[in-house]
């Protein structure tokens, strides 16, 4: 037995050997990091991995922001970003973190070149995030193109394609329903490498409860929205696109934009804000409207200020630095996108036009089927002022209400201007006193304007009559 034990090395010998090996490894690792360039290191590692894994056949899916047609937004890309945020853990040594003012918690995302391993029904799936620089022909840089790459054993191709990706989409939908943050989309050129929409979180606090609008009109709008949402099968049965058009018209400051925000919050719909001045041609408009998601509100504000839609035959000349060329954007294309064949490329969409001057619009924009409901946003009424007073001061009754009611009935004032007066003090007596003084000033100004207008009219009639007399 003793002879057998002598065959084993002593503890001192084992420790000396371990120390020698450790020192050699540290020296080798240091030399490897300092002498061999990083790109060559990555190449060697990839070849090493390939050598030991070449017995397997791998498949790769690429998910980028554009859909398969290159026109719309890829829903799977956005779903992947949300899905992977739930898979990030201690194994991921390098991640992107951030937090907006509205967010409660810090958000996480996979960093450039980062990997996440996921398991689905026993299948190992590796995700990698890439950011690829792009260059334009005119040497001006584009934003980098981002995309995800998923790799897996090719024998599971069908299950990954037909089940796993659906699992990613369903997980994303569940996350959004749990805590959905509405988005406001605006037009931004060359976003994600092409022209499209730029989303920002939408946190407007407007609601129908706080909206300073006549109660009867408010109820009719809510009833119309509810009826629209419940009639999907009706639209299908009668052969119409499932959409609804609203025209909000009236003087500035009457709450048109606030009403849109209240509609979005009530329906839980995202908003797409389309500035027609940014549209260069009919094709541009079609492509842009095709990327709008379902259950959303498309708004075109101050359409009376867009000269392009006053005349269906109008064209636009666009001049650029290096070349001159003619582009056209016609009202006919806009009408076709909101009411023609192109309008059927989506569901549960609401289109809202706003204008301060309804009378200058082309009648083709106003007919039923395009703008189904015309909502007149008038000057402030007595009932609407009651809502404002409760919102700002928390009161239902006050001794000055009777005087204020009489002034409002005989004065044209917007809810926005009265809201400004209510913000001047938290004391109801002081704030409502400011409202009374403001209404009296506005009433005098309007009476003076009427009086001056009457004087000018009388003078014109005298001049006209004198001319007729001289001619006689």
Give a description of the structure:
The structure is a single chain. This protein has 472 residues and is α/β, with parallel strands linked by helices. It folds into three domains: 58-133 and 142-179, no CATH class; 198-306 and 328-376, P-loop containing nucleotide triphosphate hydrolases (Rossmann fold); 391-456. The chain has helices at residues 2-5, 11-35, 38-53, 75-85, 157-178, 215-229, 232-238, 256-267, 282-290, 331-339, 363-366, 382-393, 401-409, 415-422, 428-471; strands at residues 58-63, 95-98, 107-110, 115-120, 123-132, 145-153, 183-191, 194-201, 243-249, 270-273, 296-300, 316-319, 324-327, 349-355, 373-376. Strands 8-7-10-11-14-9-15 form a seven-stranded mixed β-sheet, with helices on one face. A four-stranded antiparallel β-sheet has the order 1-6-5-4, with helices on one face. Strand 10, helix 9 (282-290) and strand 11 form a beta-alpha-beta unit. The longest helix is centred in the C-terminal third of the chain and has 44 residues, at 428-471. The radius of gyration is 33 Å and the shape is elongated. The model is unreliable at 136-141, 190-194 and 310-327 (pLDDT under 50).
